[in-house]
Amino acid sequence: MLRNLFIILGLLLGVSACSPTLDWRTVRADDLLYEALYPGKPSRAEKSIMFDGQKLTMTIEASKVENSLYAVGVINIPKDISQKFDTNTLVKYLQTGMLSNLKNSSTPVEKTVTIKTAGQSSIDLSAKEFLVQGDGPDAKKRLLRFRLVQRQFPDGQIQIYQQSLLQTISGEASLEKMIQTDAHEMFFSGFKPY
What we know:
Blueprint (H helix, E strand, L loop, with lengths): L3 H12 L9 E5 L4 E5 L4 E9 L2 E12 L2 E10 L1 H4 L4 H13 L9 E8 L7 E12 L5 E12 L5 E11 L6 H5 L2 H8 L2 E2 L1
């Protein structure tokens, strides 16, 4: 079901007529309750997800620059349905869907990271980060790095954020060097949920 993510991201890429060079900008998505640092102007698309009998909408903002796609997907779970299913299971479902997009993939490297919320009195949110390489639908070698984080608000609503960077791998570059580039660092450190 989430394999269509590549199709949606492809459509987003088609909307932008050219691939700009890195032009970092902070984008505030107030309706999605986050701000992020993108290397170009992002486009927006929506995707419906059926999970545990509930129809949910994932809104994705993505920017393609050179050989990389930078994206943030957000699912809002309203308070009236947030108690009807286990959000941890939904996060696991999203994780499995993301990892299944690459064929012949390596074993994913998983770690727990901390993401700070925006604002003066920011709080720390625990997130899972995954790093995997494999073949994309076009058979090109790709590196996929993504984070999944959820935030529950006092009124009961829940936001689930999926931040991802999909990058074409050329040559024999080590994963360690690729994820230590300025582009990776700026994109992942520039994401702040509200």
